[in-house]
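Hey, resending since the last one bounced:
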Amino acid sequence: MRRYLFIISFVIPAGLIFCACNQGKRGSGDGTFTIATLRGPSSMGMIKLIDSLGSSKNHSVKMEILDEPLIVRKMMIDGSADFAILPTTMAAITYNKGFDYRLVAVPVWGTLYLMGSDTTISEWKNLRGKRVHVMARGMTPDELFRYLLVRNGIDPGKDISLDYSFPTHIDLANAAGAGRAALAVLSEPMASIVMKNNRAVRRIFSLNEEWAKFEGMPLAETAFMAKRSVLENNRDLAEKIIASYKSSTIWVNKYPDSAAALIVRYNILPDFEAALNAIPLSNLKFERAFDVMDEVKEYLGVFYRMNPEITGGKIPDEGFFFK
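The structure tokens again:
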């Protein structure tokens, strides 16, 4: 597994994030702040921010675009990430284990789809007796799909075969594209890439839409976290990074063609068509954490009731949310 795709080191221009002098300690030991993000919707939403960053005499920031959320969590555990983007369930685990990060925002609201070339599936009941490939047993895609199976009257242990042969989203997407996984739970933008490469693959269900039928709200799927010390000692800088991420997300949704071109330029995705298709299907909407506290708690509550370990043994208290 590659640790990261690439690192962008930059200093934030004065017009975007102003100097926050005499605000306390800097992020890393070398005087830089590190944002750890994931290749996919998280970095797609901040692509304008990535592109806008240039040379300045102000704060130095290092952006790491990573392949897997477990690597982001490792950077939080060892303290090398000042800002981090990872699944909300994983963010809850990190907080509940005592690592001093706070939830700043939810920037992505549901990217998971049941995909496949099996033309016999039109309703949930059609999944009985089928084999569905899911990555990473016990992680968010697995637990969410199990939850929806149960809500639709299907016993995950008896009525269906869940296959974990492909452990990462990249492995699973490659298998689906090659016809080695007739049914698979995939996230954007991998879903769009698979559909482009294999025209026989289609979207069967949006797990976000299926969740909303039962819960009446979207999936608070992704967390934007920050070190408490950075939020307290460099508040102005943190707020400007937050505002820049939000404005980037708005820009991506408003100008998807331009955004798709940047997504390809910065190697987030290899293909313009797939990037363009993935943007509206990635549910990019930057919401401050305290404004969506109920949605986050409800989301985590469902997973906690299914498997307490997926949230770190409890629902995070209000200290989890940055105000």
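The two ends are 36 Å apart (CA to CA).

Sorry for the duplicate.
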